[in-house]
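REVIEWER CHECKLIST
Item 1: Sequence provided? yes
Item 2: Single chain? yes
Item 3: Sequence as submitted:
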Amino acid sequence: MIKIFKTFFIILFFITPVVWLSNYPGEVKILWRDYFIETSFTLYILILVFFSFCLSFLYLLYKKIIGFPENYKLRKNTQKLEIIGNSLNEIIKSINSGDNKKIDLNARIIKKQIGNNFFSTYVLSQSAISNNDYLKAKKYMKMLLKEKEGKFIGLKGLSLIALKENSMKEAQYYLEESLKIEPDNLWSLDKLSLLLARSNEWKKAAKLLESVKIKKNEKVIENRANFLMQAGAHPLEVWKVSKNIIPIVIKIIRYYIDEGKERKAYEVLAQSWQKLQYVGMVKEFVCIKEPDIKVSLRRFKLVLKALKPSLESDETKLGLAIAAFHASLWGETKKYLEKIKQENWDSRIIELWRKLENNSDRLEIPRMPVNIKDTPQWVCKNCEKLTNSWSIKCENCKEIGQVIWSKSDLEKINQSHFENLFN
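Item 4: Structure as written out by the authors:
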């Protein structure tokens, strides 16, 4: 209904002036030089409309001809942007799928479209690295060295390739050169400090990371703490740097216990237990040179207070059982051992049950399972080699600071094959 009214009013709007002009055509007389033009007003209006239309058409045609080169260039740029956008999307998909051929193809497309040597050359170099084609990767990285914006990236890339090829002197040279451009670059500082650590230059390695803002990078913080420890720094100094290194936690606990600062030792245990969960820390805390039941009971209560927030963990239950055993609380020892499911028992738990059996005739000891779990060990995050003791350097892969306690809650970083693109 509304459409009908709308159509009606539109028709009325155009018909009304036409009808009115047909009823009152009027006359227009024009005298120009020796010419006398006489016509109706309606025809005069039509002529004016016609000429206005012609002028408008000519103006638009002129604008189109003048603006053709710019419009053509704009269309070409739009097409380029669309091709580049599609290529970038394909590169992202290829990174996730690990398709190096597609990465190379799309990087070359981008280079062809915009001649961007920096981005496309870098992508091509990273693709070559992930494909273990170090010769080609070096070629691309050396191309980056020629560009002002790409020099640091080129040096960093060349150092990474040298590290992968175990060319340590070459890697050190490139890292030192990169730090001349960006002295505070965390990646270069970290890699160079690890190289120094490999040569047992612990003081230099620690010094290199001293003034860097590394609060957000726990791994680099741990590395610096490890270097300080190996350089012979006091445990308290190392503890201030990082609270995630088990050997230091044990040394600090022993230091405070020997100094008669039991409360301080408790605070160290409480702060570090949730992440580290190493029962050796509890053993160090409850260890008494001369037996004293009062001291043992007091320390058991402190251990309980420190470990209670992590009571769901089997390591916590074992730690509490060990502390209770040292305090001669046989019932408490049994209570915490029973909280650990039998399928999770390992040789440490079996050994504690046997000790409990030897010290108490009244408690009913459960039947020992035939199959027990392997005792937790230290593990290298890099090569996954298991070992019975901690070492700053993995004996298998020689990596620095990668050996962690397998039961700890420290983050294990699994690196993707194309991670270098985002370093």
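Item 5: Key structural point noted by reviewer: The first helix runs from residue 2 to 23.
Item 6: Recommendation: ____
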